[in-house]
Amino acid sequence: MPIYSYKAISSSGGVQTGEIDAADRPEALRVLDRRGLQPVNLSESASKSVTAPAKKKAKNDAAPAPAPAKAKAAAKGTGKEGEDKSPEGPLKMKRPEVIMFTEELSDMLSAGLQLEPALKSMENRQELGGLKDVASRVRQLVRDGMNFSTALKRVSPSFGPLYCSLAAAGEASGALDTILKRQAHYLKTISELQSRLILALIYPAFLVVAGIGVAFVFVTTLIPQLTTLIESTPGGKLPAPIKLMVSATDFLKSYWYIIAIILVAGGLFFKAWKDNPDNRMTWDTFKLRAPLMGPVVASRFYVQFLETMANLAGNGLPLLRALELSRDATQNLALRQQLNIVIDQVGDGRAFSKSLIRTGAFPPLLIDMVSVGEQTGKLDLSLRRAAERYDKELDKSLSRIMALIMPTILIIMAGLIGTMAYLMITAIFQTIKNLGA
């Protein structure tokens, strides 16, 4: 069995050195962890020599060594030690849990803890509940040599590709705590906006339901009664709009199931088309050009891009590498294509601001602030100021959309109910006029 030499820090803060027998490196790390030691250096020194007596050797030959079986069981997560610490399958997390995990980890990293001790501290905290399992599994993978971003992706799909890409950018720049703190702020902002949007839609949703109920009563009860009354009146004639509404009602009563099937099929077809990788570029381009959604998507990208670039550039990462990591953190393919153009231009030796101009996809204000940062040598500060500016623009765009929702729905419902009421009143007056004649 291999022998591993280690240098580790004990719980009291002292430095310990020694050797341990382990089947492989992960098992050696687990042994140190059970002893309460934080490894600083761990390397394989030699293989254990076997100089036992012949009787003991024969006994060992007759019975297989238990250590490899134990290591194999631990690797599969089915042994006594790995059973609780290595559960199978990804862990599902809700957005508040992702936010809490990010905030806790960023706070501990900002306080000076290294990644693995920070995850160990989260694993031992009772108030975190189910997040302890996430911290435990991520810590095991990080301790075994895996990148933090890759470990997040493997442990839980709830982190998402954007989160993992930003975590990779933080690892590369040495600013993981700053990246995680900004990601927690971003997730909290999105959650608050969704809550505000839901609250803003409660009253309009009530109006829509009430309007649909009134329209249903009009179509199924009032209009048929009025039609019967007019047709039974001598010389009574249905106005053309009433005839149209009656025809539409009869059509809906006869073929409602066909209409429902068509709507469901259309929704499924659209979803399949949107999820097709060949059509993703078209859909992402449409989202940027949509009347209300386009400015929100663009502002959100500018905030994310500028904040990521500011953190990476501020921590000494080369501009080209920072652009590549920012591109990897961008999910919109149309915007990613524009960043590829910028990366090619910067790789050819052009200035960052000039490369942004040549794409034609970035606003003049953003380019001007980047140019000022290049001229003053404080690119990270200029990028951070631009991110704050576009963060305010994003909040204004979302507030504008939510402010337009209420009057738009009111106008639509008032127009629908008012039209029906007007047609019915017109038909009644026409019937009274025919009776008087």
Automatic annotation (TrEMBL):
**Signal peptide, first to last residue:** none
Where is region (Disordered) located? Answer: 1-92
Q: Where is the Type II secretion system protein GspF domain?
A: 101-224, 305-426
Q: What keywords sit in the KW lines?
A: Cell membrane, Membrane, Transmembrane, Transmembrane helix
Comp. bias intervals (Basic and acidic residues) = 22-36, 78-87
A single Gene Ontology CC term: plasma membrane
- Chain intervals with Low complexity compositional bias: 61-76
Transmembrane region(s): 197-223, 254-273, 401-425
Q: What InterPro entries does the entry give?
A: GspF/PilC (IPR003004), T2SS_GspF_dom (IPR018076), T2SS_GspF_sf (IPR042094)
Mark out the compositionally biased spans (Polar residues).
40-50
Main localization (coarse): membrane
Q: What family classification does the UniProt entry report for this protein?
A: Belongs to the GSP F family.
Q: By what name is this protein known?
A: Type II secretion system F family protein
Q: Which organism is it from?
A: Luteolibacter luteus
